[in-house]
Amino acid sequence: METKVKLEHVSKIFGAKPKSVIPMIKQGMSKEEILKKTNHTVGVYDASLDIKKGEVFVIMGLSGSGKSTLIRCFNLLNKPTDGSIYIDDENIASFNSSQLKKVRQEKIAMVFQHFGLFSHRTILANVEYGLEIKNVSKEERRKIAMDNIESVGLKGYEDKYPDELSGGMQQRVGLARALANDPDILLMDEPFSALDPLIRREMQLELLDIQERLQKTIIFITHDVNEAFKLGDRVAVMKDGRIVQVGTPEEIIEEPANDYISEFIKDIDRSKVFQAEHVMIKPNALVSMKDGLNVAVKEMEENGISSVFVVDRGRHLKGIVTIDDAIKGIKEKKSLEDVLRNDVTIVKKDEYVNDLIPKALESMFPLAVVNEEEKVVGFILRVHVLSGLVSDDINESEEYHG
Ligand SMILES: Nc1ncnc2c1ncn2[C@@H]1O[C@H](COP(=O)(O)OP(=O)(O)O)[C@@H](O)[C@H]1O
Ligand SMILES: [Mg+2]
After folding, report:
1. Where in the numbering of this chain does the ABC transporter domain appear (predicted)?
2. Options 3.10.20.740, 3.40.50.720, 3.50.80.10, 3.10.580.10; CATH of 276-390
3. Could you report the average pLDDT of every consecutive run of 10 residues in the chain (402 residues)?
4. Which of 64, 228, 308, 402 is 20–30 Å from 234 (CA)?
5. Across the strands, what pairs with 10?
6. Across 176-259, where does the E strand assignment appear?
């Protein structure tokens, strides 16, 4: 995948002589010691990141860990004390103010925690703001703004003022305003943290929806681990100004880099992170329609299983045959088709374990997992679903349906 944003050894120190502090950090002085000794605050130290085009990249950490300081480096609202920031292979840390203005107008938009709307402007005028600055004609910016207002579900509110709208709606305006500029990169600093839990969840889904349509590169900050893992393709965890781990939610849950992260993810609901493909077992045995009952029995015996999926040439599921039915069928000179059962529950490989639990509990047979092309790629037993919620080594389970 193409790199969109790249940070190399970015540090941001606050204080009178920020550069003088870097060697002290290198020597191993802590953020606290540096503050005491020099009255400088280490905002961010030595952050290197490689963010891919189209990715939702989440930065997570406790309050004060440096998340806002870092995200403000991406558009140089914070000028880094040290390091390089590449956007599309250009080091914007070395840009002059007019180059920078261009990048900010054309490539990056930001959404803030407290919405940052202009209270004296209507919703429409708020969303038009960035286009106005770019001297887009009145008709065109109206059209673009209205399209974006509609796409965040606020059609009909364009002539209202921000204080006439709820918090959730105001943040939709913030989002519409950012999107109206059609930026490649969307910076979002705890955009949903001020919202009620219900509205917050709604906004998270909406953001994923928008992302599916628009495929922006989104850098999203949160201190909420559930939000981070729900939204992030990858997540960077920050502590005391440093990035302490970068990985997919699954990677971080499976192998937290240190105790700080373990503590962070203690309360994570695994069932909302892990998907069918993470807990399924790849089938050792599949029987095809033309194989017949004898082959089916042999496959089940060799693999020590009591039922086996039957597929067509394209690995599409035709049904399942049990060992009892197969043996009885052979005695009665029936065909595979005669004893085939169709009551198999099929699930998609990206379904969340949370949603699989009731299906697994209800189903007599293993769940069949299919990919985008409806081909069978695995199966899931009740035990896999349940162990997926607690065990540390899912996917390595040797258990088999038998
Ligand atoms: N403008 C500033 N001047 C001095 N210190 C700052 C400034 N902005 C942030 N800091 C300090 O940098 C550290 C990181 O803050 P911040 O990036 O806001 O954390 P977060 O967003 O993770 O809560 C904190 O110790 C904070 O006090
Ligand atoms: Mg912050």
Report:
1. 29-265
2. 3.10.580.10
3. 95 96 94 95 97 97 95 95 96 93 93 92 96 94 96 95 95 95 96 89 90 95 92 96 95 90 81 85 88 94 92 93 96 95 94 88 91 93 71 39 36
4. 64
5. 47
6. 185-189, 217-222, 234-239, 242-247
